[in-house]
Design brief:
The N and C termini lie far apart (52 Å). The longest helix is centred in the C-terminal third of the chain and has 20 residues, at 97-116. By secondary structure, this protein is an all-alpha fold. 65% of the residues lie in helices and 0% in strands. α2 (41-48) packs parallel to α4 (72-83), α3 packs across α6 (97-116) and α5 (86-93) crosses α6 (97-116).
Amino acid sequence: MRTTVLALVAVSTLAACGGGGASNYTTRGAFAPTQLYATGPLQRACMSQGRKAASSSRCGCVQAVADRELSSAEQRRGVKVFKDPHKLQQWRQSDRAGDNAFWSVWKSFGQTAAKVCT
């Protein structure tokens, strides 16, 4: 009996705390997606191009995905894509192995960023 009372007191106390860092916890019991954000070369390039869909949160999310999926050298090369999107098409059609490898990595990165940053 005493154990049951202590357990109820503990549960009541925890429930009264409000869950602490549950700001991304919805009322249905599922976790809401957390928006990623980072600063870096792709975030700056994204913001500087003046595209209609560019926003601080979207460009920061793209950078956060890049930080997970691209090396720093790939990120520097990717800045060129923001400045001149035709470069990506040239690399995709190139016969050079390095260009083809970058195209594959960039394509995967783009698909992930599109899913995560919408």
